[in-house]
Amino acid sequence: MDELQALLDASLLATRHVESAALVRLQGRTVCAATAGFRVPEENVLNLIYAFYKDLVQVRREGLYFKEKYYKCVRADEHSLYLHNVHGGLIVVKTNAFLLIATYRAGMYPSVCVEAVEKLADYFREKGS
Questions:
Q1: Which intervals of the chain form a coiled coil (predicted)?
Q2: pLDDT digits (tens, 9 = 90+) for 23-52
């Protein structure tokens, strides 16, 4: 198992409040690790990157689509996007080198998902990534 995938599993999935997760390298815009069965289409990767650099106000107002599901915005700033719908939610956190993408489903605690993703993002920031 890839080291980054193991990190996603141990730090996010192990909480039992993250359904799936992926790590996107900003340079190259590629998914470099993902939890089992979680695929992030290239179009979604580009939309999330664009949201951080060009579209935060629009995301706050209108939400966004991810994997053909609409998500309403709860928070959008230069580091984090928190979005939800009736089926669960989407947390996206940007570091210098990566986008961390995590989903949770109904019945999971969003606050635990947010805390785990933000903590992993802090780890990458401390490492300079």
A1: none
A2: 999 999 999 999 999 999 999 999 999 999
